[in-house]
What does this fold into?
Amino acid sequence: MSSEVDDDISNDSDVIIKGSDSNSDNFKESKITPWEVQGEINYDKLIETFGTKPITPDILQKVQKLVGDVHPLLKLNYFFSHRDFDWILNKYERNENFYLYTGRGPSGMVHMGHILPWLFTKYLQDKFNSKLLFQLTDDEKFLYNQDRTFQEIKSFTYENILDIIAIGFDAKRTKIIVDTKHIQYLYPLANEIAKRITFSTSKSVFGFTHSTNIGMIGFPPIQSAPCFLPSLIEGKPTPVLIPAAIDQDPYWRMTRDVADRMGYYKPAQIHSKFLPALDTSGKMSSSKPQNALFTTDDPETIDRKVSAAFTGGQPTVALQRELGGNALECPVYWYLRYFFDSEVQSEERLIKCEGGNLLCGECKSDLATESKSFMIKFKQRREKAKDMIQEFMYDGKPL
Amino acid sequence: MSSEVDDDISNDSDVIIKGSDSNSDNFKESKITPWEVQGEINYDKLIETFGTKPITPDILQKVQKLVGDVHPLLKLNYFFSHRDFDWILNKYERNENFYLYTGRGPSGMVHMGHILPWLFTKYLQDKFNSKLLFQLTDDEKFLYNQDRTFQEIKSFTYENILDIIAIGFDAKRTKIIVDTKHIQYLYPLANEIAKRITFSTSKSVFGFTHSTNIGMIGFPPIQSAPCFLPSLIEGKPTPVLIPAAIDQDPYWRMTRDVADRMGYYKPAQIHSKFLPALDTSGKMSSSKPQNALFTTDDPETIDRKVSAAFTGGQPTVALQRELGGNALECPVYWYLRYFFDSEVQSEERLIKCEGGNLLCGECKSDLATESKSFMIKFKQRREKAKDMIQEFMYDGKPL
It folds into this structure.
């Protein structure tokens, strides 16, 4: 049985697209692969290039009807694209629940940009009462980063697990898979997948070259395997929904291409945008720590980073009072909107900012206060998580 | 630390060499990869092409000196080539023992051509008191054979394990690794290896192409991993000797190339020739069952196959009496020599045959009798092996 969307693997490795900057006629190049996101991203163009579908009002209405609550990240179009999310909702409506599957490449510490889709995943789990597989691709991150030792990756893996548990996923319905630790559960499925994918295909999907190491070339089926694991766990074809940033899409295109031939459902996806960096130079990234808020940052660090953030404000207070700020281009505004403001608060903030009745310092102060308060609680949950790791580890048994 | 021989990975994928047929001026092409052996093989040429060394009288003397017994397969030059076997012997002489490592790709039932190197491996284990890792590459055989299901490979794996145990390896010093079953022990090492090998290198060593599936491309480090596992098991750099047919050499060339960079000894090898098929059309092969004697063949089947075998005899009894037979080109003679005849018996047989005092029927009768007797005992050992599987399975603990 198959899902509605038929997609084939197109020649879109190393997708480089011309992104239109809404405030100018300049076109800037962007590059999106699972390992690299560069430049300004035109998300509408991505939907077209990747062959996905936009999240439409119909879908929001359906979600509202089914679970009585539409997450702000859906309303705000932060989760903006999907494959077969409508099919997943129809299945759910007919009493066939789905597994959630998402993941993390443990190449560094976790920042706000990482946890945003995880908070959304928790909403999905809570509302749809779904089981969740959370994969840590420690193998991939070791293989990709030529200079990283496995010991370093292992240490990030441990730290990242604390963050995942701290999100508050339901311990009874969530299992964490660490590739090198749980490879015995993934490997047979990965071989079934790998047998159906040629180097040629993999080259065009991921942009692999002759100088790519064979570990990286062999890796993608390991990330695909959890798409089909729920069917093995449940003993029947089981729908899977993947909430993740759009850069991971090449994996799912590849996986969807083999699903039919293996007798499984194609995994469905719901794709998020990237959280802007505090200086708006691109997505928030572990490699630019000054522009990202990490879950382990101390209050002084948060104050310093927020204080140095780019805003949509005018150069002077007088101009701000006169012309108003550009809230919609302001990372501080969006941080508050995505993480802390209610819908009503955010609308008020927008009106006040654009009307010149709010200064950047006030928004920064709000963001710093909220972030510090959030991090303090999050760190406490990270501490508690240290005793919960075993409970969350995948063990091959039904969830 | 490194062994003496420095070899780099040369451009010798899909080695196709001109083999000289000793009785004619015709040159016939042969092809040798880990997955395919075709045509007549010129073993001297292989040593040159692969960059290995011949087994010399010096080495035989050293073996004699160290363990007081030189195996017939060494004397007969069936094990004809090596890398660093001399280094292994020197290590042993200085009280540093080595691990043996060999393997089997479970793509079919086991025949005499398979067990010959295993019998030699048992000799090495017995004489040198060595520990042995025996790998079954069920993943490779599943990935390579497009039409085989994993269930089929799994069933061959089980049958092959019975054969391996039936050889009589020391249960206390031998562990069997089944890739899909023990992948958690191999995977971290395999990633360390894979990270150091590009597609380009792997393409030239194994002849992979753009239409090779990514499972096959990612596989070789899994076969390399047991070369370094003994160092992890023992907690110190540990020499490893691989007795195996020469077609597996590409794996070891690749492994040797990364060993230094990973801080391990380069694995040493001792290479065997291939057992000829009963019709001498090439090496004994599971894909031509009528020309191979399987360990599970019943007496009638053995009689039938041996009776139909090609020999070095003359077309008529009268001519045989007059001209004598060509024992050295007779597969029946070599089967008897490799498996059943003592050195003295074999010399007598040679003289009688070449002198016209032995008819092919007599040799065939001897071979059938010996083979049936061997198989009856071997099958009994295979039956007993069914209760010994767990004892032989690798468990990550020191041997």
User: Anything to note?
Assistant: The CA atoms of residues 198 and 213 of chain A lie 16 Å apart. Strands of chain A lie at 15-20, 27-33, 36-38, 53-54, 79-83, 99-104, 131-136, 174-178, 240-245, 268-272. Confidence is low (pLDDT under 50) at residues 1-28 of chain A. Chain A touches chain B through 37 residues (CB under 8 Å).
